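Hi there,

I know you've been waiting on this one. I reran it after we fixed the sequence typo, so this is the corrected version. Both the input and the resulting structure follow.
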Amino acid sequence: MSFKESASSFAARMKLGPHHAIERFGVITACFTVTFAMLLAGTITSAASNNRARLDETALYTTSFTTSRTELSGDVEGVYTNSEGTRALVLMRFRDSDSGSFSADAANYQAFLTGSNERLDTQALETNITGSIVVFGSTGYLGVVLDSDAPFAKQILNLTLRANSELVYTEDAGRELREDLRDDGSFAEFDQWRLFLNPGAGGVEEAASLDEGRVDPAALYYELVLSEEERAVREVMEAQLLEMGSYLNRIAEYEGEMGRVNVDGVFIEPPAVPVQIDGDAITGQAADEDTESTLELETDWVHPRGYDFDWRSGTVEDGYLDEIMPADETSYITFLNEKAQAEDEEGSQFSANDIEWLLTDGNDLKDYGRSQQAMEPLTDIMNNTTQAYQEYYRIKNAYQVDSYNDLLELEVLLRGVDSAGSVNSDEEVLLTY
């Protein structure tokens, strides 16, 4: 059989001839239809799966807010739960906290809670939830604590906050609402904002302070806000200790050079070490993979406005002030104020120009200046040592005055939250629907 005859026979069997065009069209159309249906089903399944994954993993859907009438703005710092997943805190912070534009009394706030889906349709809550509102004094931080009778379901919660005390006058307040708020007249009548969160989502950060029976503003504020700031201060102090150690090593190196380097048999007479530096040492070991740092500054000189207590053995939460205040001092405010206003004692200010640089031949090295290149080996030692003294003194002051004060300021802030923080746990503070 020829190739042409074979091709004709195959075409006839597969109905590829002109007489079967309609049949072929039907088959092709059916194939496309089935393929499209399979792709559509796969897409729908994938989308549903992705939506469920987002619901399972997303704890916070709203990261910022603006109140409806006074137009105060803020950020949602995070959502936290206790170890059992039955208590949650949504933490917020007003950006205008320094202007006194919001109430610092939790009694002036109210909340409303309902369930929601990703299309923002209202749904019934899947667990019974009660709550309270906590205000962390005048820091700008505010939180809503939600207590569930069972671990939170993986459900989006629609939370509306209402400030019943308006401290800011805004012309035309409530008249120009965002489009998504216009269906609820309460946003025009009251100063409100709305958040969406999911405390039942996987990976929500736990807060040990939420395991306590009562809501403690100071404990929450320390764990969720101040502990991170304290860690940052400690990292700065650790770096300062390492840097001071490097400059002390330089100073020791240059002092050794004074006994070795000479010009025509003339050496530098080692100058008196400034009192602000004399005898200082960095002891202990830097941190490694297995151990924490034990570095500390040993010194006989403390800046009049600085401190030298053992900051490693305590924390801002435990407090330092009670240990460092004089026995006859009863007010930490007075103590800190007097410390900040302390006058420089005689000799407390260090200037590199005050150091005498005498030579073994009785001449003053400074008299040579740059006029004699032959003296350059000695002037280099003088300049390097002077610079090391100056830099060490600068870092030591930053360590003793600035960094120590940063720690104490955090403690003062925490004491303020402890005394001025408020919790509203009235039955009507959180209404669910």
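Quick highlight: Residues 40-53 have pLDDT under 50 and may be disordered.

Best,
R. S.
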